[in-house]
Design a protein that fits this description.
The complex is a heterodimer of chains A (480) and B (220). With 480 residues, chain A is an alpha+beta fold. Helix content of chain A is 43%, strand content 13%. The chains are: A alpha+beta (480), B alpha+beta (220). Chains A and B meet through helix 3, helix 10, strand 10, strand 11 and strand 12 of A and helix 1, strand 3 and helix 4 of B.
C-alpha cells in the first residue's frame, strides 16, 4: 500500500496518494510506473503524466505496428477501416485492417493474438497427462480432436502406439466423428447467420446440440472433455451407448437432408457463396491450406486416408471433393463429410471391439477406476478399499502416478490428425522428464487466417464475411 | 546435436530398450525408418552430402547448416522425387546454454547429468508431399544470442505467418521476411516468451499481499 511504503522508505517523488481508500490499490504498483504492466512502451500508446489524476492517462495514436505500412489515404484515394476484433461476423476476436478502394478490398491485413493464452507454454510446467486438459481448450469447436492429436504424439514418444487397445481406438474414432459433425454443423450455422439466414443458424445449432448431448452422455462434459488420455480413454462407454448413437446417427441423416434442402439450392445462398473466396490448388499448396478448403479445390488429401491413425484404415468412407475452389464448394464438401462421418460412426458401432480401454502398462495407465457413486462420478469403492486397506504397492503406484505422472523418453515427434478444419499437428519434444519440454501445435486455422489477404482482394466487404466464414477459423486454435 | 541431453557415456543398464533407443539416435542410425523414407534420405544425401540424418520413431530429420537451408528447401520443393508441395509447419525449440542439469526422476533410473553447452535454438521445417505422400523434417540450429536465419517466404507464402510466430516466441530474425512483426504478443512486448530464459513472473493473489510463485519455482 502506498501509505505503508511511504512510512518505510520515506516520501518519494510522485507519491501523491495519501493513504486511505483512494490509494489502497492492491498489488503495490510503484508510483513512478504507469499501470498497464509490461507493455508500457507499446508504440501506439503514449503515457501522459497528469498530475491531477492518480492513474496515468493514455493517448492512443496510430503508431502501432499494423498501421505503419498503410498507404497515405489522401494521396491514393484509399480508405482504411478496421473490422473487428469485436465484430459479430469475424468468428471471435479476429481483426482485419481493410484498405478499401471504393467498395472493393485493396488489401486486408489480419491481426491476431487477442485470444493468445500461452497454452503451449503452460504445458511445459504440467505433467504429461494434464496436457489433455489444456489442449482441449485450443480449438474449442473440436476439443476431442486436439486431445487425440496430443495423446497420439505422447504415445508415439512413449513407443506404445501399437499397445493402445482396439476398443480405445474405436471409441476415439466414434467420438471424433461425432465431433466433426458437430463442428461442421456450427460452421454451416454461423455461415448462415452471417449471411442472413437465421433458420440455418437455428438448424445447425440444434443438430450440434444433439451431438453435444451424446458427447456429454459419454464424457460427462459438453465441451473440453479431457476424455482421451495418453494410453487410451478415461472411461469405458456406457452400456446403452450403441443404441443411443444409432438413434443419433439416424436423426442426423434426416436432419442433414433438411439443412441441405434449405441451403443447397437456395438462390441467395448460391449468390452469396459462389465464386467467393477462391483458393486454387496451387494457392492452397503455397499457403499451407488443408482440410475442406483444400478438398474444395479438388485435392483428395485427408490425413485419415493417406496416413491413417487410430484404425481409420478399417473403415470404408470416401473423401468428398469439389472442383469450384470457392465458398460454395467448401459448403458442399462439409455437407458430404457429415454424411461420411455418419457412415463411419455406423461402421464403428457395428464392429465395436470389446476389451480394456487403457494400455495394460501400469506405469502409464491412470490408476483410478471410476464408478458412479451417490455423489457423482468418482473412484470405485472397491478400488479405494484396495489401495487403502489391502495393497501397499497399489497405493504407492497410485500416489506416484497421480503426483508425478510418468516420464517420457527424450526425442521429438510430429503427429498429424485430420481435424474438422484441416491438418492438426502436434510437435512434441521431451527431454526425458515427467513434463513436456516443448509442445508446438500446427493449427489449421492459423494458416487459414494467413490466406485472408489473398482470398479477399478485390471483394466487397459483404463478401469478405462470406470468405472468412467459408474458412471456418476458430480463434482459440489460431491464437492458442 | 543439442537435442539429446542424455550422455551416452553413462548408459543405464536397468532399462536396456530405452538406452538402446537413445544410443541409436545418438549415432544417427535410422533403422526405424520405412523403405520409402530411406530411399528419400539417400536421394537427399546424394544431393547434399553435408546433411546429418536422424531417424526416430519412424520420422526422418535432416540437419542442415543455416547457409544451405534455403538451397535444401528449394531442392525439396522442386525436385520431382521429393516434391514437397507443403511447408506444413515451422517450429522451434530453445535449448539454453550454460551449466545444464538434466532432470532425471528417481523412478526412471536415469542418471542426472550435468554438462556445459552453448545456447541453441533449433528451428524445424516440416515438409509434406501430397504427390508422394511423405513427410519429413529439415532442422537447422542457430545460437540463441542474436539468432538470424534466411527467410523461406520466397519459397512458400505460408512461411510468412510461421516465421512471424517463431520470431515472436523465440526472437529468431528471418532475413528477407517482408513483414517481420510480432503476431501473438502485443507489439511493444519485451522478450520472447517461449525461450527457456524468459522470466515467468509470479501471480499476485488478493490475500494479505501473498504471491503465488512462478510455475518453475513451485514446489507442487
Amino acid at each position: 500500500m502506498a501509505a505503508r511504503r511511504m512510512g518505510e522508505d520515506g516520501p518519494r517523488e510522485g507519491a501523491v496518494r495519501e493513504g486511505g481508500a483512494a490509494g489502497a490499490a492492491w498489488g503495490d504498483v510503484p508510483d513512478d510506473e504507469p499501470a498497464g504492466g509490461r507493455h508500457v512502451e507499446e508504440p501506439g500508446r503514449v503515457a501522459v503524466a497528469d498530475p491531477g489524476s492518480p492513474v496515468p492517462r493514455h493517448e492512443y495514436t496510430v503508431a502501432a505496428g499494423e498501421w505503419q505500412n498503410l498507404p497515405d489515404a489522401v494521396e491514393d484515394d484509399l480508405m482504411v477501416i478496421n473490422m473487428g476484433p469485436q465484430h459479430p461476423s469475424t468468428h471471435g476476436v479476429l481483426r482485419m485492417v481493410l484498405t478499401l478502394d471504393g467498395e472493393q478490398v485493396a488489401n486486408n491485413e489480419p491481426v491476431i493474438g487477442y485470444l493468445h493464452t500461452g497454452i503451449e507454454k503452460n504445458l511445459e510446467y504440467r505433467p504429461w497427462v494434464l496436457g489433455t486438459t489444456f489442449v482441449t481448450r485450443m480449438d474449442y469447436l473440436s476439443p476431442l480432436m486436439n486431445e487425440l492429436g496430443y495423446c497420439l504424439a505422447v504415445e508415439k514418444l512413449l513407443g506404445i502406439t501399437d499397445e493402445v487397445p482396439e476398443r480405445a481406438s474405436a471409441i476415439r474414432v466414434v467420438l471424433n466423428e461425432f465431433m466433426r459433425i458437430s463442428s461442421h454443423m456450427v460452421a454451416m450455422a454461423t455461415t448462415g447467420l452471417e449471411l442472413g439466414s437465421t433458420t440455418a443458424m437455428i438448424f445447425g445449432f440444434r443438430e450440434r446440440e444433439s451431438v453435444t448431448d451424446i458427447l456429454e452422455y459419454v464424457t460427462g462434459l459438453r465441451m473440453n472433455h479431457a476424455f482421451i488420455r495418453p494410453g487410451g480413454v478415461a472411461q469405458d462407454l456406457p452400456d446403452d451407448f450403441p443404441e443411443r448413437a444409432r438413434i443419433e446417427a439416424d436423426y442426423l441423416t434426416d436432419r442433414i437432408d433438411e439443412l441441405e434442402d434449405l441451403l443447397t439450392e437456395n438462390p441467395i445462398w448460391i449468390e452469396r457463396n459462389k465464386g467467393v473466396g477462391i483458393l486454387t490448388r496451387e494457392q492452397c499448396y503455397d499457403l499451407g491450406v488443408t482440410g475442406p478448403v483444400l478438398r474444395a479445390a479438388g485435392v483428395p488429401y485427408d490425413i485419415r486416408k493417406v496416413q491413417p491413425y487410430s484404425g481409420y484404415e478399417q473403415y470404408d468412407f470416401d473423401v468428398p471433393i469439389a472442383d469450384t475452389a470457392d465458398a460454395y464448394g467448401r459448403y458442399l464438401v462439409r455437407i458430404a463429410e457429415v454424411r461420411e462421418s455418419v457412415k463411419i460412426i455406423r461402421q464403428v458401432l457395428d464392429t465395436l471391439p470389446g476389451g480394456p480401454v487403457m494400455v495394460a502398462d501400469k506405469k502409464i495407465a491412470w490408476p483410478a477406476q471410476l464408478a458412479l457413486g451417490p455423489d457423482g462420478m468418482g473412484n470405485a469403492k472397491s478400488y479405494v478399499a484396495k489401495i487403502m486397506g489391502q495393497s501397499m504397492e497399489a497405493l504407492i503406484h497410485h500416489f506416484k502416478l497421480v503426483t508425478e505422472g510418468f516420464t517420457v523418453p527424450p526425442g521429438q515427434v510430429y503427429v498429424p490428425v485430420e481435424s474438422a478444419r484441416g491438418e492438426l499437428g502436434y510437435h512434441v519434444t521431451s527431454n526425458g522428464t515427467n513434463k513436456p519440454y516443448r509442445v508446438k501445435v500446427r493449427d489449421p486455422s492459423f494458416l487459414h487466417i494467413g490466406t485472408l489477404p489473398t482470398i479477399t482482394r478485390g471483394l466487397m466487404i459483404a463478401d469478405v464475411i462470406a470468405a472468412v466464414a467459408s474458412l471456418d477459423p476458430v480463434m482459440g486454435g489460431v491464437d492458442r | 546435436m543439442s537435442q539429446t541431453p542424455l550422455n551416452p557415456q553413462q548408459p543405464n543398464t536397468e532399462d536396456v530398450s530405452r538406452t538402446e533407443q537413445i544410443n541409436l539416435r545418438e549415432a544417427g542410425l535410422d533403422i526405424q525408418l520405412s523403405d520409402r523414407l530411406r530411399g528419400l534420405r539417400d536421394h537427399l544425401v546424394g544431393a547434399f552430402p553435408e546433411l546429418e540424418v536422424l531417424g526416430f520413431r519412424g520420422e526422418l530429420t535432416l540437419i542442415v547448416r543455416p547457409d544451405r537451408l534455403i538451397d535444401l528447401l528449394r531442392f525439396c520443393r522442386d525436385d520431382p522425387d521429393v516434391l514437397t508441395e507443403f511447408l506444413s509447419d515451422e517450429s522451434a525449440v530453445h535449448w539454453p546454454g550454460g551449466r545444464v542439469e538434466e532432470q532425471a526422476h528417481e523412478t526412471t533410473g536415469w542418471p542426472t547429468i550435468t554438462h556445459e553447452r552453448e545456447g541453441r535454438i533449433e528451428v524445424d521445417y516440416l515438409l509434406t508431399s501430397v504427390t508422394h505422400n511423405h513427410r519429413f523434417r529439415v532442422r537447422t540450429d542457430v545460437p540463441d544470442v542474436d539468432p538470424v536465419l534466411p527467410s523461406a517466404t520466397a519459397l512458400w507464402s505460408s512461411a510468412d505467418f510461421m516465421e512471424r510466430e517463431v520470431y515472436d516466441f523465440f526472437g529468431v530474425r528471418f532475413e528477407g521476411h517482408p513483414n517481420l512483426r510480432r503476431i501473438e504478443m502485443p507489439d511493444g512486448w519485451e522478450g520472447h516468451p517461449q525461450r527457456k530464459d524468459y522470466p515467468l513472473g509470479g501471480v499476485q493473489v488478493q490475500y494479505k499481499g501473498a504471491t503465488v510463485p512462478p510455475p518453475d519455482e513451485r514446489k507442487y
